[in-house]
Amino acid sequence: MSSYVLEQMGGAPVGHSTGADQTIGLPLAAGEYCFHKAGAKNWLSIRLVLTGEQQLSGESAGTVRHPQKGETRYQQSFTGELIGNQVLVDVTTQIAGVSKTRQETWVLEPAQLDMGRVVIEQAPCLEVSTRF
Core-most of 8, 42, 63, 109, by most CB within 10 Å? Predict the structure, then answer.
């Protein structure tokens, strides 16, 4: 399982006190949250925006390397609602001119995002690029 880093822009990093404790079970602060992973075979950048009403939107870009097909780039967009620490998110993926949408359940806690197939920890938004 891979780990990455997430940091909130425009405020204290997630998991640090801002005067109002951010503990598990309390709503996360509105703001921008970013993730980035780079490895020998692929990379992934995610930018999420959480509103004060706990609505989540965002986008990602990344690559997947296939032994026979080489590197394939993709983009995703996300929309959902954070309830407690769970997000039912609509994920739209665009890859090789094809667009597909599916629903996923993520767990978002002050220090990490569990997307089911990978757990991602904090990363500075300045390092994240979701544009090719």
Answer: 8
Contact assessment for residue 42 and residue 61, using Cβ atoms and an 8 Å cutoff:
no
Tell me if residue 125 falls in helix, strand or coil. helix
**Reported pTM:** 0.73
CA dihedral sign of residues 118, 120, 126, 127: negative
- The rounded distance, in Å, linking the Cα atoms of 77 and 92 is 5
**Neighbouring residues of 40: CB distance < 8 A, sequence distance ≥ 6:** none
Name the strands in the sheet holding 70-83, side by side, starting at the edge strand that comes first in the sequence.
Answer: 5-9, 31-38, 43-50, 55-66, 70-83, 86-95, 98-109, 112-114, 119-121
Quick: pLDDT tens for 5-20: 333 333 333 333 333 3
